[in-house]
Amino acid sequence: METAILIGIPSPYVARLRNALDSQGGLPGTWSLLFVPAPRKEPGINQGTVRQACRFADKHSSPHILGFSTQQSRSELAAEIARCFRFRWCDQLVRCLSYLATPNPAPFLERLATDLAEEEQWAFRIKPTDMGSPLLLPECSFSVGGGHRNLWRHARGYGDQANIEGAAKAVREFGRAYLRKQERYQWIDDRDLIFGRYGPRHADAPFPRGWKFSYHLPDGFHYDIKHLEARKFSITDVAGTLHLSVPKGYINIDPHGYVRG
């Protein structure tokens, strides 16, 4: 079951949308719908509604968060959502909101159906299904070259079926380039750093870092990084801090690029 969480839609439109959906037979059977209304009369979000959306998402296996906002600072406010969950801004739906106050809500409903159809394709073709997905690697620390640097950007894209095709291709090609057999198949980057995922778990990550790309990570999961030839090495974490290892040493890092003790 896919769950769409609409964040930032003004409260008066929530009831209108529910009524419009009821009159049209509801959403497709694969979807459920939740709302985190805007804190004011116009479409928008704040830290409180962002945290509430994350809490809602945490209770569902395949959450998609759809943002409604006309704020200039919206990307900064939604950064926590975008790091952990599937997220998209719904600017065309914002422009269609007024139709929900008319006898003909069809333009809004049709746009919503289009967006949800694309999201369903994303969940089927792009969303990680296990810990072997390259999308779970920390992009700040896993060194890649050429177009492979765009893997995570492709996977976060939306608004066009071509984004789905491009992301699926990027995932396949990334696997061919960086999934190499070293005792067992493991992710090995351009600097010959092995990102092992089979080690013991550590303490749980702070909420909501237990999610990435709407995939719920196993409790305490991290990568054990070591050099293929047991040399000393360095990595950069999500904050830009450089971490150094000793020869034959290793560094623990989570999928978001936070070094673990």
Describe this structure in words.
The chain has 261 residues and is of the alpha+beta class. It has two domains: 124 residues, Rossmann fold (3-Layer(aba) Sandwich); 125 residues, no CATH class. Helices cover 33% and strands 21% of the residues. It is built from eight helices and 14 strands. Strands 5-6-7-10-13-14 form a six-stranded antiparallel beta sheet. Strands 2-1-3-4 form a four-stranded parallel beta sheet, sandwiched between helices. Strand 6 and strand 7 form a beta hairpin. The longest helix is centred in the middle third of the chain and has 20 residues. The model has no long low-confidence stretch (mean pLDDT 95).
- Number of separate helices: 8
Query: Strand content of the residues, in percent?
Result: 15-25%
- The percent range for helix content is 25-40%
How is the biggest beta sheet arranged? 6 strands, antiparallel
Q: How large, in whole angstroms, is the Cα Rg? A: 20 Å
Shape: elongated
What is the distance, rounded to the nearest whole angstrom, between the alpha carbons of the first and last residues?
36 Å
Q: How are the strands of the largest sheet arranged?
A: 5-6-7-10-13-14
Q: Count the E strands.
A: 14
What structural category arises from helix and sheet content?
alpha+beta
Which consecutive residue ranges, at least 5 long each, have pLDDT under 50? none
